[in-house]
Structures are given as C-alpha cells and as structure tokens.
Amino acid sequence: MFARLPLNALRTFEAAARLRSFKLAAQELHVTPTAVSHQIRALEHHLGVALFQRAARGVTLTAAGTRLLETVHGALLDIGQAMDALRPRPGTGVVAVTTTHSFAALWLVPRLGRFYQEHPGCEVRLDATERVIDLLLDASVDVAIRYGGSEPPGLLAPAALAESFGVYGTPAAVRAAAKARPTLISVQWRDSTLYEHGWRQWCAAADLRWLDGRPPMRHYEEEHYALQAAIAGQGLVLASSVMVSDAVGTGLLRPFKPGVRVPGDRYTVLCAPGRERHPPARAFLAWIEREFAGARSDEPVSRPTR
C-alpha cells in the first residue's frame, strides 16, 4: 500500500516548504542544496504538478504545494508523536505558546491553573515576547496568541477574543475624578498611537475636556505597568476590557463612566496546520477556546465596594 510513497522526498519537501528555502532545508537535513533540489524535482515529476515557484530571491509554494504541506506536516507530526509515546519513558507533554508580555501577565498566566487541573500531564512553555514568530517556519512553537484584526494566511485561527476600551481607577480615584480632572495613565508603545487616539475617542464620547491644555498624564511602555500604576492609585487608566478583567473582578479597579466604551481589536489564537493534532496543543486549544467563550469582552462586572 505504501511501497510507492516517496517518503524521503516528502520529508525533504516538508522542510523546504516550511522554511521556504532549499538552502535552509539542506542545513536542517544535513544534505546539500543540490540534493534537496533533486528530491523536490523528483517529487514534482512523481505528482505531475509544480510544488514551488522558483525565483532569484527564493521559492514560494504553489497552491498544490500549500495543500501538500498542510497534509505532510501534520502526518510527520503524528508519526513523531507516536514514536515518542512508544519510548520507555515518554516525556511530559509540552505545548509551546508565544504571546505578548501584557497578555501573558494579565490574562493568560492567572488562568493557567485551570488548564493544569484539567491536564496535569501537560506543561505550557510560555514565551512572552513582542517579536512576531512565523509559525510556518519555527517548528518549536505550537500556538501563538496575537493582537490585531488580520489573520496571517496559511494559519489556523480556532479562537478569538474581542475587546473594548474604558477608563478605570481605584474606587477612591473614581470618586475624586467626578469632582476634579484626574491624572491620566496611558501606554506608549513604540510606533503606536492606539492609546493616544483611544483617549481622544473616549473623552469625546464621555463629553469631557480632560485633554485640553496640558493634562497631567503618565506614560508606560507596557499595559501591565499602566494597570499597576492605576491599582496603586496614581490616576485613571485607559485599559482594554480583556486586560483589566481580573483587576475589576477583584475590586481593585472599577470603571469610570461604565457606559462609555470605545472599540478595540481582538486577540487571536493561531497555529500552523497540523499542530492542532499534537496532543498537548490540542488540549490547550480546546481549553483556551472555552476560556475565550466564557470571557466577558465588553465590560467586566465589578464587585460592590463599601
């Protein structure tokens, strides 16, 4: 049944297609680029279709190549998992997840206890970074949770969590802000005007002139720094409903003018095709999809304060 399957050529194709480079595939497989090229041409001849478009600056997949990569990558991953399971001492299942520092600190890590309760044999290896990792090239990462509305082509997006923005402070800061203009806390990402525009939108919707003149404002480079400043009573913060949900739920922060919201974006869970069949990744994806479904992304409910 499998006697005529060109297994070596398929393994070579998977590396070249995933890395988008014959040279990098040759380095990974410890062969020459010429050997990779010969294997790819033999596979294309065997199938009767072109798998790559060759150009001076590299190679790109054709539609047929993209379809084959999705199948072959998943199949090789399944084989690798089956072989790991047969070892005398199989290692603990690990799922590698990458996301931003703020999402990891403010949303994901506080909830991971529930994942470990459901899957005590799994381990989440968390890489918090602002760097965008190409999931099709980096086989060491199973799942990415990214911020933004666009979904990269060729990836699966099994779950997303939308957000909106509001203004929050400690109960004392919220009461004081009703009487006098407060200190404003904002986030200043590199090359981003998200919070600057958000503050202007929110003040316009709330019919407040807080931004007139030179308002007292403090800037932080990370969202979790800004939230910690608000929790410490330093002022009112413009914050994502996703990021602030735990602080509001515990009563540390409460919304100022709860009915005034400005639209945000969303956090999307992504993985390369085939990775969803990796057992630890499959468990994590199912768990976070349930967590996203249960999250209130519009306005967290605050506990009453005395």
TrEMBL record:
PROSITE patterns: HTH_LYSR
Positions of the HTH lysR-type domain: 5-62
GO biological process: DNA-templated transcription
Ranges in coiled-coil conformation: none
Signal peptide: none
GO MF annotation: an example: DNA-binding transcription factor activity
Alphabetic keyword roster: DNA-binding, Transcription, Transcription regulation
A Pfam family hit: HTH_1
Keyword DNA-binding found: yes
Origin: domain of life: Bacteria
PANTHER family registered for this protein in UniProt: GLYCINE CLEAVAGE SYSTEM TRANSCRIPTIONAL ACTIVATOR, HTH-TYPE TRANSCRIPTIONAL REGULATOR
Family: Belongs to the LysR transcriptional regulatory family.
Protein name: DNA-binding transcriptional LysR family regulator
